[in-house]
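INFO  loader      accepted 1 record
INFO  loader      residues=401
INFO  predictor   begin
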Amino acid sequence: MSDLLTKRTVPPAVLEVVKGLQDGGFRAFLVGGCVRDMLRAQPPKDFDVASSARPEDVQRLFKKVIPTGIEHGTVTVVLRGEHVEVTTFRSEADYVDGRRPSKVEFHEDIEVDLGRRDFTMNAIAWDPNTGELVDPFGGQKDLALRTVRCVRDAMERFTEDGLRPLRAVRFATVLDFTLEPLTEAAIPKTLPVFRKVAVERINQEFVKLLLAPSVTKGLTLLASTGLLGEFLPEAAQADFEAVGRAARDEVIRMAVLLFGQPQPREVMIRLKFPNKTADDAAALVLRAPLPPAEPSDPQLRRWLSKVEAQRAPALLAVHEARGSLPAGFRARVEALLATNPPLTTKQLALDGKGLMDALGTGPSPAIGHATRHLLELVLDDPSLNTREGLLTALKAWKPPS
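INFO  predictor   done
INFO  writer      dumping tokens
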């Protein structure tokens, strides 16, 4: 057993559930991601228990059990306020729709259960009480080799569940592993099954890949295997290196990835990104042009007024990632923003009521024209933004006829 597998890293409630199942006469193991993470010396995000106990056995052994997925053998034990998921050892019949098995059969053999899993590194089971480690497909070896390899036959695994090819690329990206050649070669051949996957599931995997340090590797793999063309063809010619240089921020990286696209918001909404994320990224793409080389202060203020000052840091980050930010430009923008110049009509020292009083009129198009005129004046010279200065400017202004 690896020295990295120790009970000290397992929450007490999880250990108590495992022991309770074993005291009841059943086999019980920690499986999947938690074992993988411990073997990588990484803190697990969650702990899953697999057992020979059937759901009704688990319900009998523990006081509070939630039937979260009882038809698939999964229940959740609530112990000391903690939720511990327990799934019965099982095998799965044919996946008729490329998403879910047509039938689940319960077993008492942990190796049968591990044989249905996607990748070897996720097909390792560990008993924290006895120290028994079950690794029938060489998951530990693949972890040492930093390799993502399908359990048994890659074509079979990928035709069972169309999301698995994307998960393979996501794991290779997030963990900075390589794809085992046969696993990689199976992806283009199983794209018809991938097309059946719900967009919401694709989005969840893609966002994890997008935020990984090795995102350039991931995007390159998505493109070379054909996956990217299936769900995001607009990014086929994107600068993947630039995405990798960008800050690990969902909005900024999507803006870099979709740079130059005419309808970035529509693309992101199609991929089920939240509306705000799509709006923010689209604003960066569509307002991306920088002012002329070596702009004057008034030109710089007009640019900030157009792009909205609060978006300026993200927009600068997009241009930095793409290598299109002129030397010294960031410093000039930051210095100018530090002076808190008036950049919007809301920042004018004269509000709508003051304008109506000064012009002797009620709400009318003239008020809008006057407001825009005053903003243009203070963008040229922020010192004019006083009540007295704006009233003086109004005296010399004539509304358009």
